[in-house]
Structure to design on (253 residues):
């Protein structure tokens, strides 16, 4: 029997999914914390080459992505999702690569919608304008958009695909208009690359109802040349913003 594979991520500490599946009990990690969020990567491909994630030197024309017949079909994903929901999962997040480069993702959403759990999608926003209404109609609840800079030149350099920032901003507006809000906006902050845009980003989205999140540049393995010098700690982000505006704690969401 050939077993199909998909980059499939499960969150909540270090969950012992296999053990839970075999025992048939609710999913929990080794500390007994319930596992409620499931991330499903629908593709390992992306139309961007963000330097901190899929650097072009590694993910070049010769890079071997998963062959199409090794990726789970939408029906298989839905079946797997149903099993996880039966084990206590309450929220499913679709990710990639870039999930919207996979054809007909709204059809997958339609298959997942009857499960009655929260459905969200993380995207680079490049294909959101043309998909937002279809995704909403299919049953998606919210989107998270990665946006590293409002400065077009910086944004194009960081996505290394010469993709203009205006199109992503259009995508965020389309998502909000389609009812996929509040949109979460993630900015990966890299010192000397885009950290000079922290205040501009805060200013652009404050008061819009969207949720702005500043993410520390993380080591994602051995491919992105991570160095501590490139990290802007979150405490520094908070300090810089609080020098401009008064900050107040908000509840977890
Ligand atoms: S858009 Fe997302 S998945 Fe694609 S290269 Fe950038 S960080 Fe990675």
């Amino acid at each position: 029997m050939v077993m199909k594979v998909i980059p499939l991520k499960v969150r909540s500490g270090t969950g012992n999914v296999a053990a839970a599946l075999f025992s048939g009990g609710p999913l929990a990690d080794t500390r007994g914390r319930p596992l409620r969020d499931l991330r499903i990567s629908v593709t390992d491909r992306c139309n961007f080459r963000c330097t901190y994630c899929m650097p072009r030197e590694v993910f070049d024309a010769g890079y071997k992505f998963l062959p199409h017949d090794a990726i789970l079909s939408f029906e298989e994903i839905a079946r797997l999702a149903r099993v996880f929901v039966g084990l206590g999962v309450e929220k499913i997040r679709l990710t990639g690569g870039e999930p919207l480069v996979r054809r007909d993702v709204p059809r997958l959403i339609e298959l997942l919608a009857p499960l009655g759990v929260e459905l969200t999608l993380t995207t680079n926003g490049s294909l959101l304008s043309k998909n937002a209404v279809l995704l909403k109609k299919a049953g998606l609840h919210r989107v998270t958009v990665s946006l590293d800079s409002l400065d077009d030149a910086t944004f194009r350099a960081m996505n290394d695909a010469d993709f203009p920032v205006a199109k992503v901003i259009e995508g965020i507006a389309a998502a909000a208009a389609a009812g996929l809000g509040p949109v979460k906006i993630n900015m990966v902050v890299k010192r000397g690359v885009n950290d000079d845009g922290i205040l501009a980003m805060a200013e652009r989205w404050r008061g819009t109802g969207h949720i702005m999140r500043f993410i520390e540049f993380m080591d994602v393995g051995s491919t992105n040349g991570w160095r501590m010098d490139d990290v802007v700690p979150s405490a520094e982000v908070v300090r810089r913003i609080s020098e401009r505006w008064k900050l107040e704690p908000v509840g977890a969401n």
Observations:
- The helical segments are 17-23, 74-86, 105-112, 128-138, 152-159, 165-178, 198-205, 234-242.
- Strands lie at 8-10, 37-41, 91-95, 118-123, 142-146, 184-189, 211-216.
- Confidence is low (pLDDT under 50) at residues 1-5, 9-20.
